[in-house]
Amino acid sequence: MFSVYVLLTFLMVFTRVFGASPTESTRGIVYEEHLGRKVSPGLAFVDDRGATVKLGEYFRSRPVVVEMGYFRCPTLCGVSLNEIAQTIEDFPPESASRDFDFIFVSVDPRETFVSAAAEKGEYLRRLAWDPAADRWHFLTGAQSAAQLAAQVGFHYRYDPIGKQYIHPGGLVILSPEGKITSYLLGIQYPAADFERALENARRGETGAIGEIISVLCLSNDSTEGSLAFYVMIALRIGALLTCAGLVLIVRAKHTQLRRKLGRT
Question: pTM of the prediction?
Answer without folding.
Answer: 0.75
